[in-house]
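Let us begin with a simple case.
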Amino acid sequence: MLSIQRAGMWKRISAAMFDGILLGIAAVLFALILSWALGYDGYIDTLNERYDQYGAQYGVDFHMSLDEHDQLTSEQSANLEAAYQALGADDAAVYAYNMMIRLTLIIVSISILLAYLALEFIVPMLFKNGQTLGKRIFSLGLMDTELVRVNGVRLFIRTVLGKYTLETMVPVLIVLMIYFGSLGLTGTIVLLLIAAVQLILTLATWRHTPIHDLLAGTIVIDFPSQMIFDTQADMIAYKERQHAQKAAAQPY
């Protein structure tokens, strides 16, 4: 009788934490390379120069806290408003600000994508058992719901569509939009809904199936104790042999 040897929750959490640390390190390294290649720091320097220039000209501090802003006198508030108007009329400052936002989105999205492809797609494909480095350390594996070794298509869907797009980039983009003032309460509600769905799927389902496994039709299993077939044909042939042996052993 074939059965699914589910991975223990604590092992999964430990492997996910280990992989998450590696993923963060890889994403930062890729981001540093992209920042250098795209000249990101140059736009930051230009914007900071303009902040310093107009801050000194109007006697204001663009980096003041909310409490400091609330304590401004009417004259200081008028100076701050004039400084922002001057900054907004400066084509170089506006261009640097727009490029900073665009490059932030590009660098964040591409660096995270490259990290996922390296650690969650290429490495598992090399190990041939759907194992990331964390899963390999904690003796976990990956297969599809038919007990067959996970293929490249399923692994790509799991990594890019599930983990990268829905579970990472959607929340990251929402956070960035909240930070830049494009979203408010709506963004927070969407973040909470995504977190709630992920938590329910992971903790409340029998197979502890998060979004990425649900989309790809995959299961995280205890690797040493789980029988995994190379193809569906191998799995069917095994079941037929088991059925034949069981039938032969029954008395007539």
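The second case is a distinct protein. As before, the sequence precedes its structure tokens.
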Amino acid sequence: MLRYLKDPARYADLMNGTIFRGEQVVSPQYLREVPRKKSVLLAAARKDTLQKINGSSGEIQYLERERDIIMLHDEEKKRFFLACEGQSYSDYTMPLRLFTYDGIEYSAQVQGDVEDQDWTGKPGTPLTPVFHQVLYLGEKKWLSKHDLQEMMEVPEEMEKFRSLLPDYHIHLVDIHDQDPAHFHTEWKDIFLLMNHSRKKDELKRYIEENKGQLKKLTKETKLFLAILLDQYELLDNGEVEVKDLCKAWDGAMMMYREEALEEGLREGMERGMREGKRVGKREGKRIGMQETMKRTALNMYRRGYTPEETAGIVEESVDTVNKWYREFQA
């Protein structure tokens, strides 16, 4: 993914289509990659002062973080950073992570450690803004927090003062849910396909109807899609071989089915163990197995499987699965 994003034209199109909602703010000719790893000075006081504070040897201390990718848009009167974090699963700490990344970036500017940053050290010297996004690649919907305040437990009697607390919002970009009309490079093709990838029948139908267009994609985009759909193999020489993209939905659906079974089994066992403490191990086991089948059916429903397909996996009647599906829809 990082290799794919490092192309300035692709990166500009992604940022224009997501952060700036299709407006052509970013020009690829003004983009250049800057160091992903940044560190800021925490303490540079005299040795004796540091020893009094925390017993330190007096060595200079730094806080260091590394982003996935960050570029500088270095156009006159339009200078800003564009940062992107790739994420394949929901991360509860993401608002805090982005808060830290951006805080270090701004602190580095103040300390004059940013490439081409003309920091004078005088009060009022402006900071170069950082636009960030989280490019979410996970198959499930993002279920974690979007804001720093969502991670806080504010006492009920203090709720009226919540507005006094700092907040930090993450700009989340779900690769399965973007408007292709906002893009002008092969991101358009990626989002057209990925918008169908959470539903088995939709993905199959889309790939079959667009075989000609998919075959025209560049090698790099085919590789990117192959990785997203788990349609690749690592060869002995370290290279990556892309499978036939027009068969991608088969592999993707097999992966989704296995995930659904694993999740259902785990959730069912947890329920069985809880119930076993209350009603006994034998009854708890029976409840756990029943919960496993229903949870698996729920996971397969979310992934677009038909009741008939699900019934064959969970070994229940189609009528039973149809009843569960109606409950899920409610």
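Confidence is low (pLDDT under 50) at residues 49-53, 114-120. The radius of gyration is 25 Å.
Keep these points in mind for the review questions at the end of the chapter.
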